[in-house]
Design a protein that fits this description.
The chain has one domain. Helices cover about 35% and strands about 35% of the residues. The N and C termini lie far apart (about 75 Å).
Length: about 110
């Protein structure tokens, strides 16, 4: 027979692993979305790494409990200067991407 404390610890471990697994997939989504965003603006995402800087539980407009995550990253427009940016997600939806002031890259046609 399984004791109550063993059941508690198994449930806790399962919940933590599940949360970690889900967070990893959200982070992968944030990286791919930010990479696409940077490519569209002729910017280069550096190191393709995201650093989690905030995690808050919030209620959405329809009353669901979601996590609000904020990731920081670095990008470059010139290849020489590192700039900072952040992406914010609510659940699996990107709420916004903010980029630090940077030099606008020139087009390949020279415009």
């Amino acid at each position: 027979m399984i004791s109550l404390s063993l059941l508690f610890w198994l449930t806790l471990i399962t919940a933590l692993v599940s949360f970690w697994w889900r967070s990893d997939s959200v982070k992968s989504y944030a990286i791919s979305h930010t990479l696409k965003y940077c490519r569209e603006r002729n910017l280069q995402l550096l190191d393709q790494t995201m650093v989690l800087r905030g995690l808050w539980p919030i209620r959405t407009a329809d009353g669901q409990l979601q996590f609000r995550r904020r990731y920081h990253f670095e990008f470059t427009s010139t290849g020489m200067i590192r700039n900072k940016g952040q992406v914010e997600l609510i659940g699996i939806k990107v709420k916004g991407i903010e980029l630090e002031a940077h030099i606008l890259p020139q087009n390949e046609e020279g415009m």
